[in-house]
Amino acid sequence: MSAKEEILSRITSALRDAPTPGPVPREYRTVSDMPEAELIELLVDRLEDYKAHVDVVEAADLSATIAERLKDASSFVVPHGIDGTWLADAAPAGDARRRIDAPGAVLGVAELDGTDAVLTSSAVSIAESGTIVLDGSGDQGRRAISLVPDHHVCVVPVSSIVRLLPEAMQRMDITRPLTWISGPSATSDIELERVEGVHGPRQLDVIIAKGL
Amino acid sequence: MKIALFATCIVDAMYPQTARATVKILERLGHEVVFPSGQACCGQMHINSGYMDEALPVVTNHVKAFEAESYDVAVAPSGSCVASVKHQHPVLAERCGDSALKARAEAVGAKTYELSQLLVDVLGVTNAAEQLGSHFPHKVTYHPSCHGMRSLKLGDRQLDLLKSVAGIQVADLPEADQCCGFGGTFSLKNADVSSAMLQDKTKNIESTGASLCAGGDASCLMHIGGGLSRTKSDATTLHFAEILASTLDEPVSVTGEILVGKAGVR
Amino acid sequence: MSNVFMGMPTLPVFGDGNLHIEEPFPAAAHRELGNTQMRANLRHATHTIRDKRLKVVAELPDWEQLRDAGSATKNHVMANLPALLEEFETNFTARGGIIHWARDAQEANQIVADLIREQDTTEVVKVKSMATQEIGLNEYLEEQGISAFETDLAELIVQLGHDKPSHILVPAIHKNRTEVRDIFLAEMPNVDPNLTDEPRLLAMAAREHLRRKFLSAKVAVSGANFALADSGTLAVVESEGNGRMCLTLPETLITVMGIEKLLPTKDDLEVFMQLLPRSSTGERMNPYTSLWTGVTEGDGPQNVHLVLLDNGRTAALADKYGRTALNCIRCSACMNVCPVYERTGGHAYGSTYPGPIGAILTPLLTGIKSEENSTLPYASSLCGACYDACPVKINIPEILVHLRGEDVDSKRGEKKLPSQMDLMMKGGAWAFSSGKHLGLLEKGLPLGKLAGGRDKKIKRLPGIAAGWTQSRDIPAPPSQSFRDWWKKDHEPVAPINEQEKLTK
Description:
- The structure holds three protein chains of three kinds.
- Chain A is α/β, with parallel strands linked by helices.
- Chain A is 22% helix and 24% strand.
- In chain A, the strands form three sheets. In chain A, strands 1-12-7-4-2-3 form a six-stranded parallel beta sheet, with helices on both faces. In chain A, strands 8-5-6-9 form a four-stranded mixed beta sheet. Chain A has a two-stranded antiparallel sheet with strand order 10-11.
- The longest helix of chain A has 14 residues, at 36-49.
- Chain A starts with a helix and ends with a strand.
- Chain B is an alpha/beta fold.
- In chain B, 51% of the residues lie in helices and 11% in strands.
- Chain B has 14 helices and eight strands.
- Among the domains of chain C are: 60-311, 3-Layer(aba) Sandwich (Rossmann fold); 437-504, no CATH class.
- In chain C, a hairpin with a 4-residue loop joins strand 5 and strand 6 (233-238).
- The radius of gyration of chain C is 27 Å and the shape is globular.
- Chain C is built from 24 helices and twelve strands.
- The chains are: A alpha/beta, B alpha/beta, C alpha/beta.
- Chains in contact: A-C, B-C.
- At the B-C interface, helix 1, helix 2, helix 3, helix 4 and helix 5 of B face helix 1, helix 15, helix 17, helix 18 and helix 19 of C.
- Strand 9 (178-181) of chain A pairs antiparallel with strand 9 of chain C.
């Protein structure tokens, strides 16, 4: 008997006297009608609590804000699908600071390690827990680029913000490689006190963009 | 209302004044108290120690004793014993394969109340000074025993009753929700851990400056009181029923002695 | 459902690995209680986390509804495990992942070692995993000449300190910042000799130490917090980014997961991802959660393996009063609120799984007869704080009591002299099974009163009762029981309203 067959048969046997469980009650909150302004306020509060830096800007000011957040980076990586207009101020096409990661032209791990920052967009954000979800789409890139550089600048379009995790789940394609980010890398391993900055990006700048 | 008193074994044998105070309170409210004579113990010590075979006759006896008497509700001055009657008895009966006993135990359990539950939820007592004449001019603190707090969800019923006693001063107990470390035979099998828990509890009681720690379970109070006594503390322990029973005419001392009047119920 | 009833294995088949405690709990607890530094560290840490947890739990108006959903979902999973496992395997495999099944610790260890060898490497990076701790994977790999580097900060502290984990979430919870600094100074190559004990600087030292390993590792080993059957998705919940490093950079990823970790769909994940972070670190959300479904071309590991582990889980599942222990999501809330754990620490429990959940899970996985594991269910005052805190509502006190019963019953057959406890319980059963018996015994109360002496206190008792009098007195009993007083002195009073009725 294979290990699989044996384990499955052990389970079947173990459950012989098990009662049929009742239905799963789903009386927790799954929808919310929080107005946009409050959603933004809640998300900002949560992210700042995690020690992230947060800007809330109009779409027209996005490029300038990105340039401001990236001004100290001697180099930064962007995924191939990022909106080019976002970079108009920070690094117009041809700028040496800008490194593009694209399928077939990926940056090596050492190269990423030698890059100061990364700019990505995001798929969906959960205001109540201060969580930003990346799903590997073209404007977010593969997982390594938002992990290895020490400074992550992340754009959150206001239209992608929801209040509750169940609302966000409806917008996620669960089979994509997903990364849920709630603040910069942190640890509570010493005396259960949270301190920021271990292996992931130690600086997280979030730009919440209205009108996007 | 006709109320059957479940005295519990420890109160019956070691703290009869707690049961007498319970009777006194209920009669003062105008109710008839009966004492089903077949009763002995809820069997919790056996169940919690894993001696299920030995627990079965104890549980069976309790169910029989309370079936033998006619009453509206049963009451015990103990959260722990009531939790056992309500929750453990049916489980034990099922484990021993006695589904008839399980149903009977559930019926008895459904009619059984912890004293503060009965006073507040059924008899509508919210002000002990006004409704019971309770008077106790001492500084006390209060330990909410685990089973009353967590299994029966008594909330602040006992504490609120205490606060409504005339003349009383109630000091908050730091880390009140922490177990005193009794746990039945836990205090014997894991005496070191139990003692460490007790030490923190008695220190917290001392820190309040209260002359006594009140509670709703004689077993926890015996444990805490034993620890206070060993450390030569001035503080003692007392069941909240005895504080509620204390009046201007028949005051109860901080050590539970009835100071004036006949040491009876009348 | 599979119908392989032919050649049914004899059940239950218990687990093996770092689950067998060698010292009875009371003896281990006695030793640990003497470590005052550890007790101070634990008190500080557990009290910190309790406050944080209460605060973030209170923020959610639907916390109890989430607990209800979580609990019911897990019961549903256990009842439908064979079908869900098959469904998961189909979906995970369809997306390029490879599944391995392991009956026990030994089989799982061999599978992992073989997979590592296939990649021509002798080094792996690891992200904290209870399952690999349970099966003793690191020790096994070391025997095979493979070095496993723990990358979670607390695991790193434990590994560098040649220590053992004492908590499932924060394995180095028993160490304070100064002790961590000292371990780093002594054991971490190239560490700054001026390192202070500031947690932020300690975390940065760990970052420097592990960075090279992450960037060059070919193989990573992980656990998993959840697996979604209907999509074949795995999830790892973490804080530091070491998990992301392990799950993203190496070409090969080997995940070891207990069979009970499944959830049916992503709708269930939304429940557990609200319950878990708030219950474990007391955060609204943990910094990082990674989800992957098989292999994604051009993103992350291209060789993705999953080892599905039994190792006693089916034995636990066969225990009808104990099986809900498998609902555990390893949040550690029960140990953080446990007054026993707070004082003894995790080492006293002698198993990978300490605290209240460990006191039930360990003997369920190994069987109650395994060495000293029978002492674990007694390591609780049954205060119930764990049940209140458990996000999936495992009735830990009830299972503790059930396992005590299993222990007592398992010893009934043995032809040994009855213990003092046995005699006490037999005597108690006689006394407490009849009001007459108890009444008779109570006639002896005045004798006990004599034993109390002048101050009416009993200060020393023999045998097992000496445990009581080591730190507590007992009041001398009264001269008359309540029962006796009721019979002799209590004149029945007709209630006021009855009297009123009579006068009418």
